[in-house]
Amino acid sequence: MEDREHMISFRKNSRVQIGIIPGHYATSHSHVNYYVDLTAVKTSAKTAREAAKELASMFTATQIDTIICIEGTEILGAFLADALSQGGINVGADINLVTPEINSNNQMLFRDNVQKKIWNKNVLLLISSASTGKSINRAVECLQYYNGRLVGAGAIFSAIKEIHGMEVKSIFTEQDLPSYMNCLPVDCPMCKNGQKVDALINSFGYSKL
Fold first, then answer.
1. Is domain 2-197 classified as CATH 3.40.50.2020?
2. pTM over 0.85
């Protein structure tokens, strides 16, 4: 798989790059024709810092108290909080960062000691990749339960444009991936053509089959 990977750069900042690998991949609820490798943005301090600056520029007019980090975006979230506090409406602000816990029923929850960072707070939801919106929907439901106010949704890569009437702002979109496809397994044309699944993928990475 790795020999098929090529890097693409953000059009406004060539230092922000992600890898894409064409193929046939299965998530927990869909099939896609690209694995989007976000490892560098999620693990490299230099890349995460640059990506955070680009995301922060999209939220300069949005007041944010807390960033909820999902799918391994904690490093990016820390740099994003710092970038947001450098200018715009959040200049000088001390922005909180929290990560939800996932229980045995695959539900998100926050322990009592961090709920005060969400209750009646302006919350930005930060996710690594949004392909169908299911992860974001689950996070929004969790946020509503804890009485947080969703004021923005940001992603490294997103194939969806909005959620709950709110724009999902991302560095990369499906327009950066030629002929990007995301479909239910029953509708997958690759499966119908007998093309084997290359790997199982989730927010942690991929496992070859």
1. yes
2. yes
